[in-house]
Design goal:
Shape: elongated
Number of helices: 15
Strand content: 5-15%
Order of helices and strands: HHHEHEHEHEHHHHHHHHH
Strand order of the largest sheet: 2-1-3-4
Number of domains: 2
Helix content: 55-70%
Length: about 375
């Protein structure tokens, strides 16, 4: 091993990166853009859904019902209409996503100890908004109905006898406010480590081949493994810098907690880098141009994003796709990084994921190194 040869090759690669503005933009700017876009845009928190109200009663009981909807931040009482036709037009145009139709005898039925029916109209074109709005409306309706029933029993003097047979007392651990950013930001870290290192590693090696400089490197005393290490090590450093950058912004801007040990986070992230580096290096051995290298990496990156639990829960996928997801290294790292940041678990709790990453990392790096050496020979 010649430290000076390896250091010179690493220095050369850093100079190459600094001289390429496109690479610098990709490395420094794109991760921040992804962080803010996904942190704010990729969210399942549905709030202030515009509601159209067709109130045919306009009595005191109606005002209590509307106050119940108004007090929750799920709905925005945006429109009051005078007919079902107006309500339909608002929903058809997308101005209102839900509608509430209150019958003319609503107050009379409530005050008379009767049962009133209220129509809740949903725009089902967006299932995410519709399902959240439906759940929120059912919750608000149940709470309001319970309060009305309690008031009736109080007036009769028998409120002490009213006790629900079952009470569900929710306790939310790790993310009490159910903030989507707490789930998304750790996923962004995994996506950046996976995409950035694999794409840059693949294109960096192929770039030498495109420009004809790799032949010059081959005829030098540099050994194949030194060439591999010298090419990929700068991108490992850049990947860790991006990871710390995203982690800092996510913690200070989005308030994502960092409950786990930072050293353990970096250690297991470095283990995950073996897989992304192996994928990038392996892609470079099949590609002759940088475009081919990027397309080869994206063929693996896109399925990984959709089948790793980054966007969609694995439990909601068909069984076949759940089995396919076991072959995606990103799946295991997302479990690791989310558990370390939000739950502060130890290595033993993540042993299955760690073992899987070791297997993927060793297998991919071995295959990539052997093929890379054969390509050089």
């Amino acid at each position: 091993m010649n430290n000076s040869r390896l250091a010179s090759l690493i220095r050369k690669e850093f100079i190459q990166i600094l001289r390429d503005p496109r690479t610098l933009i990709l490395v420094l700017v794109i991760p921040i853009m992804q962080l803010f876009l996904l942190g704010y845009a990729a969210t399942n928190d549905v709030r202030n859904v515009p509601m159209a109200i067709f109130d045919q009663d306009r009595g005191p009981a109606t005002r209590e019902l509307l106050d119940a909807f108004r007090s929750a931040d799920y709905f925005l009482l945006a429109y009051e209409v005078d007919s079902e036709q107006e309500l339909r037009l608002l929903i058809d145009s997308g101005k209102a996503r839900v509608g509430l139709i209150i019958p003319p005898d609503y107050t009379a039925q409530i005050k008379g100890n009767g049962s009133a029916q209220v129509a809740f109209i949903l725009d089902g074109s967006d299932p995410t908004v519709a399902s959240t709005a439906l759940s929120a409306a059912q919750m608000i309706g149940q709470e309001h109905a319970t309060r009305l029933l309690t008031d009736r029993l109080v007036r009769r003097g028998s409120s002490d006898s009213f006790q629900p047979p079952v009470q569900i007392i929710p306790q939310v651990w790790y993310n009490p406010d159910l903030i989507s950013a707490y789930f998304m930001i750790p996923g962004v870290i995994g996506m950046i480590l996976f995409a950035l290192t694999s794409i840059l590693t693949a294109t960096a090696v192929v770039r030498e081949r495109e420009r004809g400089t790799i032949e010059q490197l081959i005829v030098t005393p540099i050994r194949p493994w030194e060439l591999v290490v010298g090419k990929i090590l700068p991108y490992v450093v850049l990947a860790f810098l991006n990871m710390l950058e995203v982690l800092a912004i996510g913690h200070w801007w989005f308030k994502v907690p960092v409950r786990g040990d930072l050293g353990l986070i970096l250690l297991l992230s470095g283990l995950f880098l073996l897989t992304s580096l192996g994928i990038g290096l392996l892609a470079s051995t099949f590609a002759n141009t940088q475009q081919e290298a990027m397309l080869s990496v994206w063929m693996i990156l896109l399925p990984s994003l959709f089948l790793s639990g980054f966007f969609f829960p694995l439990e909601a996928m068909p069984v076949v796709l759940q089995w396919v997801s076991y072959f995606m290294p990103l799946r295991y790292y997302l479990v690791i990084i989310r558990s370390l940041l939000l739950k502060d678990v130890g290595v033993w709790a993540l042993r299955n994921e760690v073992i899987a990453l070791i297997i993927f990392g060793v297998a991919l790096m071995t295959a990539a190194s052997l093929r890379f050496r054969k390509r050089l020979d």
